[in-house]
Amino acid sequence: MELDETDRAILRILQEDARTPFSEVARRIDMSSATVHDRVSRLEEAGVIRGYHADIDPKAVGHGVGAFVGLRVEQGREEDALERLRGIDGVREIHLTTGEWDVILRVVAADTDRLRELMFERIAETEGFSRSQTMVILGTDYKQPGPPL
Protein backbone atom coordinates (compact mmCIF):
# COMPACT_ATOMS: atom_id res chain seq x y z
CA MET A 1 0.00 0.00 0.00
CA GLU A 2 1.33 3.42 -0.96
CA LEU A 3 1.09 5.94 1.91
CA ASP A 4 0.70 9.64 1.22
CA GLU A 5 1.56 12.44 3.63
CA THR A 6 -2.05 12.55 4.95
CA ASP A 7 -1.91 8.84 5.83
CA ARG A 8 1.42 9.42 7.59
CA ALA A 9 -0.01 12.38 9.52
CA ILE A 10 -2.95 10.26 10.69
CA LEU A 11 -0.60 7.45 11.68
CA ARG A 12 1.67 9.82 13.64
CA ILE A 13 -1.31 11.12 15.64
CA LEU A 14 -2.68 7.65 16.36
CA GLN A 15 0.79 6.30 17.20
CA GLU A 16 1.17 9.07 19.77
CA ASP A 17 -2.29 8.38 21.25
CA ALA A 18 -4.53 5.73 19.69
CA ARG A 19 -7.50 7.08 21.65
CA THR A 20 -7.47 10.38 19.79
CA PRO A 21 -11.02 10.83 18.43
CA PHE A 22 -11.32 10.99 14.65
CA SER A 23 -12.83 14.46 15.06
CA GLU A 24 -9.61 15.65 16.73
CA VAL A 25 -7.44 13.94 14.10
CA ALA A 26 -9.56 15.62 11.41
CA ARG A 27 -9.20 19.03 13.06
CA ARG A 28 -5.42 18.67 13.33
CA ILE A 29 -4.94 17.75 9.67
CA ASP A 30 -7.74 19.96 8.31
CA MET A 31 -9.93 17.18 6.95
CA SER A 32 -13.45 15.86 7.62
CA SER A 33 -14.03 13.20 10.28
CA ALA A 34 -15.67 10.95 7.67
CA THR A 35 -12.57 11.10 5.48
CA VAL A 36 -10.32 10.31 8.45
CA HIS A 37 -12.57 7.38 9.34
CA ASP A 38 -12.38 6.07 5.75
CA ARG A 39 -8.60 6.41 5.66
CA VAL A 40 -8.15 4.69 9.02
CA SER A 41 -10.43 1.85 7.89
CA ARG A 42 -8.35 1.49 4.72
CA LEU A 43 -5.12 1.45 6.76
CA GLU A 44 -6.57 -1.23 9.05
CA GLU A 45 -7.77 -3.39 6.14
CA ALA A 46 -4.35 -3.13 4.47
CA GLY A 47 -2.64 -4.29 7.67
CA VAL A 48 -0.76 -1.02 8.17
CA ILE A 49 -2.58 -0.55 11.49
CA ARG A 50 -2.36 -3.94 13.20
CA GLY A 51 -4.18 -3.08 16.40
CA TYR A 52 -4.63 -0.69 19.30
CA HIS A 53 -2.97 -1.35 22.64
CA ALA A 54 -2.64 0.18 26.07
CA ASP A 55 0.97 0.89 27.09
CA ILE A 56 0.96 -0.59 30.61
CA ASP A 57 3.77 0.06 33.08
CA PRO A 58 5.04 -3.43 34.02
CA LYS A 59 6.04 -2.27 37.52
CA ALA A 60 2.50 -1.03 38.20
CA VAL A 61 1.14 -4.54 37.63
CA GLY A 62 3.80 -6.43 39.59
CA HIS A 63 6.51 -7.07 36.97
CA GLY A 64 9.35 -4.91 38.26
CA VAL A 65 12.23 -6.72 36.53
CA GLY A 66 12.83 -6.95 32.80
CA ALA A 67 15.59 -8.65 30.86
CA PHE A 68 16.79 -9.46 27.38
CA VAL A 69 17.79 -13.08 26.85
CA GLY A 70 20.02 -14.18 23.98
CA LEU A 71 19.60 -17.81 22.90
CA ARG A 72 21.56 -20.04 20.54
CA VAL A 73 19.26 -22.51 18.73
CA GLU A 74 20.31 -26.09 18.00
CA GLN A 75 20.20 -26.82 14.25
CA GLY A 76 16.89 -28.30 13.13
CA ARG A 77 15.08 -27.52 16.40
CA GLU A 78 13.98 -23.95 15.63
CA GLU A 79 10.21 -24.27 15.21
CA ASP A 80 9.61 -26.60 18.15
CA ALA A 81 11.80 -24.50 20.43
CA LEU A 82 10.12 -21.25 19.42
CA GLU A 83 6.66 -22.75 19.90
CA ARG A 84 7.55 -23.78 23.47
CA LEU A 85 8.88 -20.27 24.23
CA ARG A 86 5.57 -18.72 23.13
CA GLY A 87 3.82 -20.62 25.92
CA ILE A 88 6.03 -19.37 28.76
CA ASP A 89 4.41 -16.73 30.97
CA GLY A 90 6.78 -13.79 31.24
CA VAL A 91 8.12 -14.03 27.68
CA ARG A 92 6.85 -10.81 26.08
CA GLU A 93 8.76 -10.68 22.78
CA ILE A 94 10.64 -13.19 20.63
CA HIS A 95 12.99 -11.80 17.97
CA LEU A 96 14.86 -13.91 15.39
CA THR A 97 18.25 -12.29 14.88
CA THR A 98 21.61 -12.54 13.18
CA GLY A 99 24.91 -12.38 15.00
CA GLU A 100 25.92 -14.10 18.23
CA TRP A 101 22.34 -14.99 19.22
CA ASP A 102 19.77 -16.69 17.02
CA VAL A 103 16.90 -15.51 19.22
CA ILE A 104 16.56 -12.58 21.60
CA LEU A 105 13.70 -12.54 24.10
CA ARG A 106 12.33 -9.72 26.20
CA VAL A 107 11.02 -11.11 29.46
CA VAL A 108 9.43 -9.65 32.59
CA ALA A 109 9.18 -10.99 36.13
CA ALA A 110 7.98 -9.77 39.51
CA ASP A 111 11.47 -9.68 41.03
CA THR A 112 14.92 -11.23 40.63
CA ASP A 113 13.85 -14.46 42.33
CA ARG A 114 11.02 -14.89 39.81
CA LEU A 115 13.43 -13.96 36.99
CA ARG A 116 15.81 -16.69 38.16
CA GLU A 117 12.93 -19.20 38.18
CA LEU A 118 11.87 -18.08 34.71
CA MET A 119 15.42 -18.46 33.40
CA PHE A 120 16.43 -21.73 35.07
CA GLU A 121 13.14 -23.58 35.40
CA ARG A 122 11.32 -22.52 32.23
CA ILE A 123 13.62 -21.13 29.55
CA ALA A 124 16.78 -23.15 30.28
CA GLU A 125 14.69 -26.34 30.43
CA THR A 126 13.23 -25.68 26.97
CA GLU A 127 14.72 -28.17 24.53
CA GLY A 128 16.34 -26.87 21.38
CA PHE A 129 18.66 -24.25 22.81
CA SER A 130 22.37 -24.80 23.42
CA ARG A 131 23.38 -21.55 25.15
CA SER A 132 21.89 -18.43 26.69
CA GLN A 133 22.83 -15.07 28.15
CA THR A 134 20.58 -12.90 30.30
CA MET A 135 20.94 -9.12 30.39
CA VAL A 136 18.86 -7.49 33.14
CA ILE A 137 17.31 -4.17 32.16
CA LEU A 138 18.36 -1.59 34.76
CA GLY A 139 16.25 1.16 33.24
CA THR A 140 14.92 2.47 29.96
CA ASP A 141 16.26 5.84 28.95
CA TYR A 142 14.32 6.22 25.70
CA LYS A 143 11.45 4.32 24.11
CA GLN A 144 9.68 5.44 20.98
CA PRO A 145 6.45 3.66 19.96
CA GLY A 146 6.22 2.24 16.44
CA PRO A 147 8.34 3.00 13.39
CA PRO A 148 9.37 6.49 12.30
CA LEU A 149 6.74 8.11 10.08
Blueprint (SSEs and pairs):
Layout: H1 5-16, H2 22-29, H3 33-45, E1 65-73, H4 78-86, E2 91-96, E3 103-109, H5 112-123, E4 129-137
Antiparallel strand pairs: 1-3, 1-4, 2-3
Helix pairs in contact: 2-3
What does this structure look like?
The protein is an alpha+beta fold and 149 residues long. The protein is 36% helix and 21% strand. It has helices at residues 5-16, 22-29, 33-45, 78-86, 112-123, and strands at 65-73, 91-96, 103-109, 129-137. A hairpin with a 6-residue loop joins strand 2 and strand 3 (103-109). Helix 2 (22-29) crosses helix 3 (33-45). The protein is elongated, with a radius of gyration of 20 Å.
How is this structure best summarized?
This protein has five helices and four strands, in the order αααβαββαβ.
Q: What are the main properties of this structure?
A:
149 residues, alpha+beta, 4-stranded antiparallel β-sheet, 5 helices, 4 strands
